[in-house]
Design goal:
With 65 residues, the protein is mainly alpha-helical. Helix content is 57%, strand content 0%. It is built from 4 helices and no strands. Helix 1 (15-23) crosses helix 2. The protein is globular.
Length: 65
């Protein structure tokens, strides 16, 4: 019996994939913690900043931290 444990590492994903994760409904995709990590990584890379602000994800992240 093999148990697979996969850890989400936002730094390993390209910006496009992170953007897809952020803009897809959470319940079908990733947990809240992973979503926050994806937003943080995009902000760190300074990619999609205008889009994050436009859809309100960056403000949600700042207020939640």
């Amino acid at each position: 019996m093999t148990i697979e444990t996969s850890r989400f590492n936002a730094q390993e994903l390209c910006s496009r994939k992170l953007w897809e994760l952020v803009t897809t409904p959470n319940e079908e995709n990733i947990g809240e913690r992973e979503l926050q990590q994806a937003i943080e990584e995009l902000a760190t890379r300074r990619r999609y900043l205008e889009e994050l602000q436009r859809i309100g994800k960056l403000e949600e992240h700042k207020s939640g931290a």
